[in-house]
Specification:
The chain is of the alpha/beta class and 510 residues long. It folds into three domains: 11-193, NAD(P)-binding Rossmann-like Domain (Rossmann fold, 3-Layer(aba) Sandwich); 201-298 and 424-510, Orthogonal Bundle (N-(1-d-carboxylethyl)-l-norvaline Dehydrogenase, domain 2); 315-415, NAD(P)-binding Rossmann-like Domain (Rossmann fold). It has helices at 18-29, 41-60, 66-74, 104-115, 133-137, 171-183, 199-202, 204-215, 221-231, 238-245, 247-260, 271-278, 323-332, 358-365, 395-406, 423-439, 445-456, 462-469, 471-485, 494-502; strands at 11-14, 34-38, 76-80, 95-98, 123-126, 146-151, 160-165, 187-192, 292-294, 297-299, 315-317, 337-338, 348-351, 372-375, 384-389, 411-415. Helix 8 packs antiparallel against helix 16.
Length: 510
């Protein structure tokens, strides 16, 4: 066993699993002493060995000195929990973090055992990702010192931690945890005690709306991923993300948050994910999910290029959000773009609707639907542009449009008819859910944006994303989608609606 403990020990960690180990590592690297506890001694031994190896590897890479590595490793200690008997050395800790199984009864039992040993000014934190902090603190002797302290895996790399106050948590408790997070080199964001807190709550929009789009047959899994990565700048597409995390993890979270919010339509899960989970199509871990994997590499179907298609029709661009950009882009390719107020009888009619499908845009403009193709140009074209056909669109004219835009050096994806295309729908959903989190006073706009960037890996948080696109345009997309579907899933949150109508930035406070 490691060296004897002394009064300098500051942090106790209950649970030597993946999360406990990660927290222990960053704590000792930050100069804290750590006492790691687990019911299995072998878990503790393995955790200490792993933490030590990771710290020494940093020294070998020149990130820290050998002396600092030695000092950090020396601050790691452990004890085994035998039955209900917790080591008396726990009394030296000023902060204790439980990182045990996500079961309310187990967490309450841990807190009761900890409270029997520690001083009254010791903070007791839970690393829960899904349970109510208020529920965990129920029955505690001093519930004011209990708070959520939610780290993300892998802890050393995910530089974010959610600090969650339960109904009875004292302000001083939250402030102490904020300070500990900063000392560990992590950003601390405050969240109210609600399902999903910030990150898991905000993450509902990306994958659930993508599943809805796929469920309507609008685009394939791979097409949706490519649009969001190459056309919208996300690092990973929604189905790539689901395959990485595994449906055995993601689907229960989607179901849980939907149920905990009393079946709020914005968080409605998809039967697609439920059935694929039943089939064992978990993702990378099972070798097959939304993609098939060989040696860990997703296998993608090759698609024919549109560049060789002969374009022998002129284009006429209808007034709309991206009309100017489309005119410039096609003009640079040397193709024939008509300038008249109405299209000639041979022209391909290009539409650039905001939140509206190709069918509706063609009908509202009075255009021949067989010659109409919609282009998603609302937020720029990106390196991949989306074309949308309506049921009457002439396939040959759709192919010519794809070939024309491919000549601009962009990849092209053709999707079926949908209000809001793919990119508009998903971005609007992300912004709307972020605004709803702020409206409920779960967290501030700044904390939401930071949590989403660091916890989900988006290039922008929902407020920065919405301001970049334009709040009024996001509102228009949602309004049109709600009108088309009649589904409250797409109703705009009051936070977004008020700021869009007043011309304010989305982070503007009430």
């Amino acid at each position: 066993m490691a060296s004897a403990i002394d009064a300098k020990i500051m942090l106790g960690i209950i649970g030597a699993g993946v999360m406990g180990r990660g927290i222990a590592q960053i704590a000792v690297e930050a100069g804290m002493s750590v006492l790691l506890l687990d019911i299995a001694s072998e878990n503790c031994v393995a955790a200490i060995a792993q933490c030590s190896a990771m710290i020494r590897r940093k020294s070998e890479k020149g990130l820290i000195s050998a002396a600092d590595a030695d000092d950090a490793v020396a601050r790691l200690d452990w004890r085994q929990i035998v039955g209900a008997n917790y080591p008396i050395e726990l009394r030296h800790c000023s902060i204790v973090i439980e990182a045990v199984a996500e079961r309310l009864d187990i967490k309450r039992a841990v807190i009761a055992a900890v409270e029997a040993l520690v001083s009254d000014d010791c903070v007791v934190a839970t690393n829960t990702s899904a349970l109510s902090v208020t529920g965990i603190a129920n029955g505690a002797r001093l519930p004011g010192r209990i708070a959520g302290f939610h780290f993300f895996n892998p802890v050393p790399l995910m530089k974010i931690v959610e600090v969650i106050g339960g109904a009875l948590t004292e302000k001083a408790t939250l402030e102490r945890l904020d300070a500990v997070a900063r000392r560990m080199g992590h950003m601390s964001v405050r969240a109210a005690d609600t399902p999903g807190f910030i990150v898991n709550h905000a993450g509902r929009a990306y994958v659930t709306e993508a599943l809805r789009i796929a469920g309507e047959g609008i685009a394939s899994f791979a097409d949706i991923d490519q649009i969001m990565v190459e056309g919208a700048g996300f690092r990973m597409g929604p189905f790539q993300l689901l395959d990485m995390t595994g449906l055995d993890v993601s689907q229960p979270v989607m179901e849980s948050i939907y149920r905990q919010f009393y079946e709020e339509p914005r968080y409605r899960p998809s039967v697609i994910a439920a059935r694929r989970l039943e089939a064992g199509l978990l993702g990378r871990k099972s070798g097959r999910g939304f993609y098939r994997y060989v040696d860990g590499v997703a296998q993608l179907e090759a698609k024919a290029s549109a560049e060789d298609t002969v374009v022998d029709r002129p284009f006429w661009i209808a007034p709309g959000e991206g009309a100017g950009l489309l005119s410039q882009t096609l003009g640079e390719t040397g193709l024939d773009v008509e300038e008249g107020e109405t299209p000639s009888g041979r022209a391909i009619v290009l539409l650039s609707p905001l939140g509206v499908d190709c069918t509706s845009a063609a009908a509202e403009g009075g255009y021949d639907p067989t010659r109409c193709v919609a282009v998603d140009a609302a937020f720029g074209l990106g390196s991949r542009v989306s074309l949308m056909r309506n049921p009457a669109s002439d396939p040959g004219l759709v192919g010519m449009t794809a070939a024309a835009l491919a000549r601009s050096g962009r990849a092209v994806t053709v999707i079926h008819d949908s209000p809001g295309f793919v990119r508009q729908r998903i971005i609007a959903a992300i912004v709307n859910v972020g605004c709803d989190i702020a409206q409920q006073r779960i967290a501030t706009p700044d904390d939401i944006d930071n949590a989403v960037r660091l916890g989900l890996g988006y290039a922008q948080g929902p407020f920065a994303m919405g301001d970049s696109a334009g709040p009024a345009r996001i509102l228009s997309i949602l309004t049109e989608m709600e009108r088309f579907y009649g589904d409250p899933r797409y109703r705009a949150t009051p936070w977004l609606k008020r700021r869009a109508l007043l011309g304010l930035g989305l982070a503007h406070p009430d």
